[in-house]
């Protein structure tokens, strides 16, 4: 089949998120200027540079995570392990502002070192970030999409030593969770390696 997104796909469910998958989940913790704490998962999340270490997440609308990050200039991206998947899902609730999803999902907080927002204490890894840019992408016709993209430089990295194996972060042990589309998720339980090829002139 072929379809043009603006004209609709004719399927019972939108395939777009299932096609661009799996997507890592940025479990974003933020705090506003009044000290109110927010925790929410974003599957439009990824790293896009190593030097400097930059990550971003996209909010479809002006939600608390993007609003708080823009207000204070900081956020933490917590890694979702398989063991934390159900609690992560609970933090996706549309709670009123001022209600901490940490408490709602029965999650312990841990202090960050360099930024104000707390970390998810049980997360295998967490990235402390300072905002570098806020982007509001436009559609082809120049109208607003409503999306808010928050980019940040990672200024501190927390890794639970239990997930380090011979100097490498053990992705399988953590069972990194990704969003697949619809209501589906995956966790890493198998990996394979391939070396990048070197050009050899024939």
Automatic annotation (TrEMBL):
GO terms for molecular function: FMN binding; oxidoreductase activity, acting on the CH-NH group of donors, NAD or NADP as acceptor. Gene3D superfamilies: Electron Transport, Fmn-binding Protein, Chain A. It comes from the Bacteria. InterPro entries: Flavin_Rdtase-like_dom, Split_barrel_FMN-bd. Residues 18-171 form the Flavin reductase like domain. It holds the Pfam family Flavin_Reduct. PANTHER family: BLR2425 PROTEIN, FLAVIN REDUCTASE LIKE DOMAIN-CONTAINING PROTEIN. This is Flavin reductase. The lineage of its organism: Bacteria, Pseudomonadati, Pseudomonadota, Alphaproteobacteria, Hyphomicrobiales.
């Amino acid at each position: 089949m072929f379809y043009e997104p603006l004209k609709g796909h004719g399927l019972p469910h939108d395939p777009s998120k299932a096609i661009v998958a799996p997507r890592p989940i940025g479990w974003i913790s933020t705090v506003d200027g009044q000290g109110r704490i927010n925790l929410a998962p974003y599957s439009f999340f990824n790293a896009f540079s190593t030097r400097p270490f930059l990550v971003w997440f996209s909010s479809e609308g002006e939600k608390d995570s993007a609003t708080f990050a823009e207000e204070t200039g900081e956020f933490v991206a917590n890694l979702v392990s398989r063991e934390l998947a159900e609690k992560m899902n609970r933090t996706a609730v549309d709670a009123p502002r001022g209600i901490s999803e940490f408490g709602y999902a029965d999650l312990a907080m841990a202090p960050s070192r360099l930024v104000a927002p707390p970390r998810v204490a049980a997360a295998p890894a967490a990235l402390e970030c300072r905002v570098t840019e806020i982007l509001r992408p436009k559609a082809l016709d120049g109208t607003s999409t409503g999306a808010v993209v928050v980019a940040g430089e990672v200024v501190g990295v927390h890794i639970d030593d239990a997930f380090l194996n011979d100097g490498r972060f053990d992705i399988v042990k953590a069972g990194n969770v990704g969003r697949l589309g619809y209501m589906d998720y995956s966790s890493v339980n198998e990996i394979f390696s391939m070396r990048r090829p070197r050009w050899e002139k024939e």
